[in-house]
């Protein structure tokens, strides 16, 4: 019997081009799409006068066919063709050759919508630089079995985000995973994240990039330096094949999907760090990979003289509010949300997305508004790094449409100075601690992504071990990286055998963690900070695929202590609604005599906001069923201990000790918090933070 599909008129070729049966393609299907009997190829170019589809067998230097797309197959600016009788689709690589107004043929261009890219399938394998087409578009089969996968859909205020680099997280030999440095390797470490209480992992860029971009050898050390972080996208729809153990087999997509599915089964959401502010094509001296050859002045912000605006600091700036580029970005994020079931996106240098085509900041940027209200993305977390490399700083003023959260750079700067012991910081720290209502009034506390450290800068341990950056290993004479770190080495620069200094550093790390994990807003932890990871003072480790960037999984007393402390505090946060309420506190009473928030000093209800003060104490209360959840936190950044008067609780309620960074046994598991012997006065050690809890009925 003949299949009804075979009788469809639109399933038959109508022309022959270069020996292949073809027909007019569907311009509404950008990229390469499987259709009945063939593949639909569609690419947009406003400036091309002619476009050819170029076909390769996987790994071959020369194409085996080139199909000029008939002009009659063009709809508007979209060239679309369906090609039949393509053998070995899993072996097929393709690209486009465009001719411009001058009629000069160019090189072969990658498909902006390519779902997979060949050329860098094995991390660190030296490419053939004589090959003119380095990043080849490939087809990907969408046949992954998601089973009964369901997104966790965690309320934003309950998120605890863990920022991690896919390769760096498990590349160290001590990781003991089957496939170090891959999506599969990260998947093996999910029970560890679950044990910490982490419920969201933010992956540094996994869109296809070239680790050999600006690759070089450090003349002093002999180390090969790479584009390790990946903040320079080659292809926005394709997962980084070099991060997949199965990448050389063209299975990177399935391996990544298996990771996402496993994250969801552990109750962990997946957030992708996406880079739409620039591409790997650089400025006028950079390579032509895709966008430059298709429509240079559409995809990039251009000066009147024809050069590239450089608001990204990397040579070019994507023209994200141009209608064509805007549609591309929206299509791309929808694809990741649907095809890979991604739960959220963090936008690198997102202030660029608020700029007009000439770089002028817009009050209502179309791209940000569309992302905020798009129905497909409605359930996704949207996080902005609300600044760019050209000085546009929009923390607290980023166009948010009540949907966007922001990396709160002011929280980072304030908590660093406060814990270091700078004067005049108590009032500022109090504001940041309760969700920065001065910045996010009228928005939920989850608008503030609170962090002490991130990939860009010192690790948490280095923040308390170095006064200055030490980036000599980058081969740039220590000129790169930020100078305004607000760090303090506690008395010695770098590693030391001084027990007193090491004890203080350990206490300072815990102080940061205790304040971060009890602040209102969404906390973000940098991978390895809970293990005392060091980069030996390097605050710009973007180029190191080595011990300097990898998480070390070797157990030691410091690591064990910090992991236990972090897990206890994350679980404490999850159990106490008083520290993670969705709304900013107003001071209202939740029960007679119990205010939602009250501030204290060495004397209860008498905070000291003076410049010389180095002590912040706060009690927060929130309903929890029929009871009231009370949490009291006191942070003493003074080098002397203080006796602190505790606020009174209703009859029968007792203050219990959850954590004391100045004590030997510094944290307690949920339900095992001991009651204080003295319910009236608490001794707080020098440079220490104490967390108490109580439940009233």
TrEMBL record:
EC annotation from Swiss-Prot or TrEMBL: 3.2.1.-
Keywords on record: Glycosidase, Hydrolase, Transit peptide
Membrane-spanning ranges: none
Record-annotated Glycosyl hydrolase family 13 catalytic domain positions: 163-573
SUPFAM superfamilies: (Trans)glycosidases, E set domains, Glycosyl hydrolase domain
Compositional bias (Basic and acidic residues): 472-482
Entry's Gene Ontology molecular function annotations: isoamylase activity
Pfam family, one: ISOA1-3_C
GO biological process: carbohydrate metabolic process
InterPro entries: GH (IPR017853), GH13_cat_dom (IPR006047), Glyco_hydro_13_N (IPR004193), Glyco_hydro_b (IPR013780), Ig-like_fold (IPR013783), Ig_E-set (IPR014756), ISOA1-3-like_C (IPR048650)
UniProt region (Disordered), positions on chain: 472-496
Keyword Oxidoreductase recorded: no
The protein's enzyme class: hydrolase
Name of the protein: Glycogen operon protein
Organism for this UniProt entry: Streptosporangium sandarakinum
């Amino acid at each position: 019997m003949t299949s009804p599909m075979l009788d469809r008129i639109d399933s038959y070729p109508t022309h022959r081009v270069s020996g292949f049966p073809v027909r007019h393609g569907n311009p509404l299907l950008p990229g390469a799409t499987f259709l009945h009997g063939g593949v639909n190829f569609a690419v947009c170019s406003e400036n091309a006068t002619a476009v050819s589809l170029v076909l390769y067998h996987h790994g071959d230097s020369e194409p085996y066919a080139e199909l000029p797309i008939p002009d009659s197959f063009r709809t508007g600016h979209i060239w679309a063709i369906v090609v039949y009788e393509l053998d070995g689709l899993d072996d097929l690589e393709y690209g486009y050759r465009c001719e411009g107004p001058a009629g000069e043929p160019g090189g072969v261009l990658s498909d902006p919508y390519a779902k997979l890219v060949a050329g860098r399938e094995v991390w660190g394998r030296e490419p053939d630089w004589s090959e003119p087409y380095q990043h080849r578009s490939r087809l990907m089969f969408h046949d992954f079995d998601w089973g009964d996968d369901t997104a966790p859909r965690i309320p934003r205020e309950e998120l605890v985000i863990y920022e991690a680099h896919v390769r760096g997280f498990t590349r160290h030999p001590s990781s003991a995973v089957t496939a170090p440095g891959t999506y599969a390797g990260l998947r093996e470490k999910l029970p560890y994240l679950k044990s910490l209480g982490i419920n969201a992992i933010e992956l540094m860029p996994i869109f296809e990039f070239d680790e050999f971009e600006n690759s070089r050898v450090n003349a002093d050390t002999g180390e090969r330096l790479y584009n390790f972080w990946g903040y320079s996208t080659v292809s926005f729809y394709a997962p980084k094949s070099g991060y997949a153990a199965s990448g050389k087999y063209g299975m990177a997509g399935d391996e990544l999907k298996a990771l996402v599915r496993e994250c969801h089964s552990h109750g962990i959401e997946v957030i992708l760090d996406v880079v739409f502010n620039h591409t790997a094509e650089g400025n006028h001296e950079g390579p032509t990979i895709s966008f430059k050859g298709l429509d240079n002045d559409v995809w990039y912000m251009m000066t009147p003289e024809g050069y590239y605006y450089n608001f990204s600091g990397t040579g070019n700036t994507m023209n994200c509010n141009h209608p064509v580029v805007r549609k591309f970005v929206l299509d791309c994020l929808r694809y990741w949300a649907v095809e890979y079931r991604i739960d959220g996106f963090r936008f690198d240098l997102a202030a660029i997305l608020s700029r007009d085509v000439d770089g002028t900041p817009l009050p209502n940027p179309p791209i940000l508004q569309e992302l905020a209200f798009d129905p497909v993305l409605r359930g996704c977390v949207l996080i902005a790094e609300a600044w760019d490399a050209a000085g546009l700083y929009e923390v607290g003023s980023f166009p948010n449409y009540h949907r966007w959260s922001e990396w709160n750079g002011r929280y980072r700067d304030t908590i660093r100075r406060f814990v270091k012991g700078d004067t005049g910081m108590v009032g500022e720290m109090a504001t940041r601690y309760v969700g920065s209502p001065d910045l996010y009034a009228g928005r939920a506390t989850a608008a503030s992504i609170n962090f002490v450290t991130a990939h860009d800068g010192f690790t948490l341990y280095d923040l308390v071990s170095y006064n200055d950056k030490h980036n000599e290993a980058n081969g740039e004479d220590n000129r790169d990286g930020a100078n305004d770190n607000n760090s303090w080495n506690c008395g010695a620069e770098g590693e030391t055998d001084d027990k007193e200094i090491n004890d203080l550093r350990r206490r300072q790390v815990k102080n940061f963690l205790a304040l971060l994990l009890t602040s209102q807003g969404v906390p973000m932890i940098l991978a390895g900070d809970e293990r005392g990871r060091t980069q030996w003072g390097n605050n710009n480790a973007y180029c190191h695929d080595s011990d300097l960037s990898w998480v070390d999984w070797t157990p030691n007393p410091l690591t064990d202590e910090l992991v236990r402390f972090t897990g206890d505090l994350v679980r404490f946060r999850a159990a106490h609604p008083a520290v993670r309420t969705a709304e900013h506190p107003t001071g209202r009473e939740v029960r007679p005599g119990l205010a939602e928030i009250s501030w204290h000093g060495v004397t209860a209800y008498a905070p000291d906001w003076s410049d010389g003060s180095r002590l912040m104490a706060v009690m927060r209360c929130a309903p929890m069923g029929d009871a009231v959840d009370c949490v009291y936190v006191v942070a003493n950044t003074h080098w002397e201990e203080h006796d602190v008067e505790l606020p009174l609780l209703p009859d029968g309620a007792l203050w219990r000790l959850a954590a004391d960074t100045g004590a030997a046994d510094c944290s307690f598991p949920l339900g095992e918090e001991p009651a204080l012997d003295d319910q009236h006065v608490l001794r707080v050690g020098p440079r220490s933070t104490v967390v108490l809890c109580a439940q009233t009925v």
